[in-house]
Amino acid sequence: MSETGATAILKEEVDIVIPTIRNLEFLEKWRAFFEPYHLIIVQDGDPSKGIKVPEGFDYELYNRNDINRILGSKSHCISFKDSACRCFGFLLSKKKYIFTIDDDCFVAKDPSGKEINALEQHLKNLLTPSTPFFFNTLYDPFREGTDFVRGYPFSLREGVPTAASHGLWLNIPDYDAPTQLVKPLERNTRYVDAVMTIPKGTLFPMCGMNLAFNRELIGPVMYFGLMGDGQPIGRYDDMWAGWCMKVISDHLGFGVKTGLPYVWHSKASNPFVNLKKEYKGIYWQEELIPFFQSVSLPKECTTAQKCYVELSKQVKAKLGKVDEYFNKLADNMVTWIEAWEELNPSVAPKSDALPNGSAK
């Protein structure tokens, strides 16, 4: 798929969602790749602060006042002062594919020095099947120059629809606070030219900095939880969404890919601030992971929404004992689904949500 081909075919089917607290000069670095697409910008923090977007981009800009206006009594399910607010953009989008990226991520280069079109690679990943039931030792058999290896069952070679494409980062790796503290100078310089399907039954730590997904398949489960202001935990928003998404994708027969594309992650966040946000999560994840590994969804759960509501019940029943926070989170998982169905009815008229900023 050429860059122009991807643009011509899919520009009406993709929204780029960006959470931010600052002016978006970083878009200038992405102009060649992002300008044809529609952006949904979710401003976190003080809604009275102006956010500048470079000229020439087609965008909608939403802040906390807009979240309160559009969601009303359900607005409490969207986190404040945390990048988890990005999922508000997922709610409002009407496109088939979402690409979400952080504003400290720039265009990376491959080993030949060529700039990487991250969005194009994500679309390649999403438009080709995944192979979650049997591992192919040459990784993604649908990439150019490779195929299924000898011994791969022919009955499984058709693959399954790909729900999500998880990209990686050069320069600053996505480390937790303790690892940041003991490796303050470590940088990722290893470019691994590979895409692979994460096997069924295997969880992974999903990072929201460089992520794309098929909204029609698993959009309703891409809720980034309750994080940030007023919550006992932060920096686990994408982890939570990833664990939920993976067990539901496994149940529904979808696949998840990880690997290419890379972005250039430009700066490390403060490890001491991160530790304050993460420390409960570091303890809790030792119980969260076994919980997700043991999740079983009944066969009656045939849609992403039904799966997510059922998962919320299991969160309340089993994780509510870990901390009261998980009872609150489970309730907000249900609120999120109610908001999703309100803004995305099955016979889908356009949402009446109005942008407060646009540029052509």
UniProtKB/TrEMBL annotation:
Official protein name in the record: UDP-arabinopyranose mutase
Main localisation: Golgi
EC main group: isomerase
Key words of the record: Cell wall biogenesis/degradation, Glycoprotein, Golgi apparatus, Isomerase
Keyword Plastid: no
Gene Ontology biological process terms from the UniProt entry: cell wall organization; plant-type cell wall organization or biogenesis; UDP-L-arabinose metabolic process
GO molecular function, a single term: UDP-arabinopyranose mutase activity
Positions bearing the site annotation: Required for activity: 150, 157
Residues with glycosylation annotation: 150
Record EC number: 5.4.99.30
Keyword Manganese: no
One Pfam short name: RGP
Native source species: Vigna angularis var. angularis
